[in-house]
Amino acid sequence: MRPFTYQRPDSLAEALALAARPSTTVLAGGTTLVDLMRQGIETPSDIVDIRRLAELAGSTVYSDRIEIGALTPMSRVAEHAAVRTDFPALAQSLQQAASQQLRNGHGRGQCPAADSLCLLSGREFSV
Ligand SMILES: Cc1cc2nc3c(=O)[nH]c(=O)nc-3n(C[C@H](O)[C@H](O)[C@H](O)COP(=O)(O)OP(=O)(O)OC[C@H]3O[C@@H](n4cnc5c(N)ncnc54)[C@H](O)[C@@H]3O)c2cc1C
């Protein structure tokens, strides 16, 4: 693994400023990113750990959309009443992804290969 700097900001504004630098990668739970770094596929110079940003965890329902925070665990999204009602295939895919431990502790998957993102790409959504 190549050397890198590690920073864990306390505010979203600071995180965004740090993440805007070239060759910087965001770390959420680390389950995908650390594997990719070990394999030399991802080689960031700087890592910004967003796990202190509580505002990124949780889901908010609006009249026309549901916003899912980047740090919301997969199991929390799958259990959300509005997701179960309006996006049953998303709830189902998240219930079947990975292991219970990963579903409880890690993000719904920013990884382009994640099952739920493939599913969402067939619907109107933004990241
Ligand atoms: C044993 C195992 C089994 C798995 N099985 C499945 C499965 O069946 N189905 C499935 O879909 N997935 C599966 N996964 C993948 C799992 O869903 C992902 O590892 C997990 O969701 C990634 O979340 P994380 O919080 O650990 O992200 P990280 O590893 O921290 O980040 C993943 C990527 O997203 C980027 N990122 C993170 N947060 C942000 C952000 N806020 N903004 C922009 N980019 C960001 C990171 O830079 C990185 O490139 C499995 C993983 C493991 C280890």
Automatic annotation (TrEMBL):
Keywords: FAD, Flavoprotein, Oxidoreductase. The keyword Lipoprotein does not apply. Gene3D superfamilies: 3.30.465.10, Uridine Diphospho-n-acetylenolpyruvylglucosamine Reductase, domain 2. SUPFAM superfamilies: FAD-binding/transporter-associated domain-like (SSF56176). Signal peptide: none annotated. Residues 1-127 form the FAD-binding PCMH-type domain. The keyword Ion transport does not apply. GO terms for molecular function: FAD binding; oxidoreductase activity. It comes from the Bacteria. This is CO/xanthine dehydrogenase FAD-binding subunit. The lineage of its organism: Bacteria, Bacillati, Actinomycetota, Actinomycetes, Pseudonocardiales.
